[in-house]
Amino acid sequence: MSDAEFEYHGEVLPYFFHMYNLTHLNERMAELAIAHWWLATQLPTNNPDHGLEVGNVLGHYRRRKHTVVDLHEQAAWYQWNHQSVINEDMFVFVDRSITFPWVCSISTIEHTGAGLMALEALKMLTQPGGKGIVTFPTGVDEDLDRLVAACLPGFFDRACTISRCGDGWLQDDRPVVSEYGPWANTVAVCEWTAPE
């Protein structure tokens, strides 16, 4: 494994580097690498455009045409999916009872002020048999931190934390909670499959 790679559940992934948001300096270099790997290998559908992202993150880095829900951030003119960004609260959107074959959220739910409810909402937005992935930094939302400290019980099929190690990231042997600032030092990565 080179200095430009890290391991996630036995997969060796290249770090994701991009000038937008200076990914080489923060958690985006690892969490976006995981998200792009997941979207390329784990989707339960042959149509990667038919899915939901909660929080407008992925479109800043790669061409995607999926639906995005983000209360605050409107799509930038350079984003390829700018017409599919819905500026609506995820808790209102979930009341529409629309579900998707895949759901992804990258470092967004910690900003809701209701992280555990946000996790439940993400799972409700996943259609039966569908899959989801969520990342969130520790040290921001106390309820999410308590869930991580309790080893992420019952919520997910697969969950771990990754922590900053020098200029890179390592998957932790057991879930870790650490302080946030100025960027994340530890990120929880959680995957699920919705019951049929």
Would you write up a description of this structure?
The protein has helices spanning 28-41, 90-93, 115-124, 142-149, and strands at residues 5-8, 11-14, 52-54, 67-69, 85-86, 100-106, 126-137, 158-165, 168-171, 186-193. It is α/β, with parallel strands linked by helices and 196 residues long. The strands form two sheets. The chain has an eight-stranded mixed β-sheet with strand order 5-4-3-6-7-10-8-9. Strands 1-2 form a two-stranded antiparallel ribbon. Strand 6, helix 3 and strand 7 (126-137) form a beta-alpha-beta unit. The radius of gyration is 16 Å and the shape is globular. The protein starts with a strand and ends with a strand.
Number of helices: 4
Tell how many strands the DSSP assignment holds: 10
Cα separation of the termini: 38 Å
SS content category: alpha/beta
Query: Whole-number average pLDDT?
Result: 84
Content of β-strand: 25-35%
Radius of gyration from the alpha-carbon trace, in angstroms: 16 Å
Spatial strand sequence of the major β-sheet: 5-4-3-6-7-10-8-9
Uncertain spans, ≥5 residues at pLDDT below 50?
none
Shape: globular
Order of helices and strands: EEHEEEHEHEHEEE
Which range best describes the helical content: under 10%, 10-25%, 25-40%, 40-55%, 55-70% or over 70%?
10-25%
Report the sheet with the most strands, covering strand number, pairing sense and barrel closure.
Answer: 8 strands, mixed
